[in-house]
Amino acid sequence: MRGKKGVEHFEPDDPPRHHANKRRGRGTFANDRPPVVGTIGRETGQVRLRVTPDTKQLTLREHVEQFTGEGTHIYTDEYDSYNTVQRTRSTVAHGQNEWARDDDGDGIREVHTNTIEGLWTGLRNFLRPFRGVSKHFLSGYVAVHEFAVNLKRVTVHFISSLVLIHLFYPWAKAFGYFVYSILT
Fold first, then answer.
1. Predicted pLDDT of residue 95
2. What gap in Å lies between CA 102 and CA 93, rounded to an integer?
3. Which residues are paired to 90 by β-bridges?
C-alpha cells in the first residue's frame, strides 16, 4: 500500500513522503504537520492536549479559554496568535534568547515555558517507538499520552475501574492491556 500508514494512496500526482516532512514554518493538518496544542497547570499538573488543524488566533484562544479558569495567569512564548486570549499573560522572548525571567525580584524565575516544553519532549519520546503516526490517528496517540501523564500513579480506584471495565465490557480487554503496557 502506497502513501500514509492506514490510508490508501490513490493520487499519482501526490507521491508519499520520504524521511519526514522538513518544511519550515508552522505546521497545519493540511500540510501533513498537524499541530498539537496543550495546556498544563503549574499547581495541579493536569495536562490537556489536542490535535488541531492549525495554530491561528481563534484555535489557540478556544483551547486556552476552554482548559483554563477565569483569572488564570498564562505563560507563553512571544507567538502573536496568543494575543487575543482573554487571560493575564506573561511572555518570554525566545527570539531574543530569553528563556526565563524573574518579574517580581524574589530570585525565582517564574516567567518561563519550561513546563510545557518538557511535556513536548515527553510526547515526542512517547511517539518515537511507533516510527511515524498517521495524522488521521495522531489524536488517539496524543490522548493516550495525556491520560498517562494525568494519571500520575496507579491507585486502588484506578485498578477497580479497570476491573469493572474488564468484567462488564469484554470488548475493552485490549484497552486494559494497553494501559498496563504503558504503565509498566
1. 85
2. 13
3. 75
pLDDT digits (tens, 9 = 90+) for 58-102: 998 999 999 988 888 888 888 888 888 888 888 888 888 888 888
Q: What is the structure's pLDDT at 175?
A: 56
Cβ 113 vs Cβ 75: under 8 Å:
yes
Q: Give the model confidence (pLDDT) of 132-145 as tens digits.
A: 888 888 988 999 89
Mean residue pLDDT across the chain? 80
| Residue carrying C-alpha cell 482573554 | 86
Phi-psi region of 23 (alpha: psi -120 to 50; beta: other; left: phi over 0): beta
- Reading phi first (left if > 0) and then psi (alpha if -120 to 50, else beta), residue 60 is in alpha
Give the amino acid at 126.
Answer: F
What sections of the chain are H helices per DSSP? Answer: 57-67, 114-127, 138-151, 156-168, 173-183
- At residue 12, the 3 state secondary structure works out as coil
CA-wise closest residue to 177 among 133, 130, 146, 144: 144
Which of 142, 128, 148, 118 shows the shortest CA–CA distance to 63? 142
Contact 40, 116 (CB under 8 A): yes
Name the DSSP class of 83. T
Helices H, strands E: what count in the chain? Answer: 5, 6
Residue with cell string 469484554: 170
